[in-house]
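Hey, I'm writing a tutorial for new members on how sequence and structure tokens pair up, and I'd like a real worked example in the thread rather than a made-up one. If someone can provide the structure for the chain below, I'll link this post from the tutorial.
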Amino acid sequence: MRRAGVPVRLIALEDETSAELIASFPEHERVQLNIGQLGKLLKTLREFQSGYALMAGQVKPKRLFHGLTPDLKAAQILFGLKRRNAETIFGAIANEIEQMGVTLLDARAFIDDQLAESGPMAGKKLPVDREYLDHGVQIAREIARLDIGQGCVVRKGTVLAVEAFEGTDAMLRRAGAFKTDETLFVKTVKPQQDFRFDVPVFGLRTLESMREANLGAAALEAGKVIMLDKAAVIAQAKTWGISLYGF
């Protein structure tokens, strides 16, 4: 965003936003708040005279359900939700932001070069048969449609693990408890994915989890899965002999 010449302000979440990122903003261009302070978040957007906003980074899922101390505005939103998950909670926050006249941008804005791309990204080709890739994509898309998770691990037509509330790393560890030759980790998006938030991400931490679980290949939906520090991820995958493929 800075390279594009866009003026940037930061609303940081305590215990979630990195200290390095916070320190990169002058004090008058940043505000730090607790995750439940929705009223203060909206007030800060007004004070910053924001025309646009973008959700970046991660909020640990458990923070949405444990240790959350919502202010009045957040409590009103939570009380009105019949289903409470990342999509409904962030969706409600997104609607509050846009009702102020602030446009919430696609979370992939400014990072086209950090998205998964079609075909082999690390490794000459995907080291599993096409039918097993198709099976993994089918399973991943179905659990995404059911709002269970956005990824799965398959092996020769068998589902070893699916991603749920515990997150990607825990799923990969579970999958690693089984026979891991010719396994494939598949990451996708929901059929009606709201790209303003909760966009699937693949980074060095995920790659490390794959290595620890002895999983040798990942297939990521091209143009939709964000690869954090993509060049470093691809270089490390090649070093470790992990294949990365975009479908």
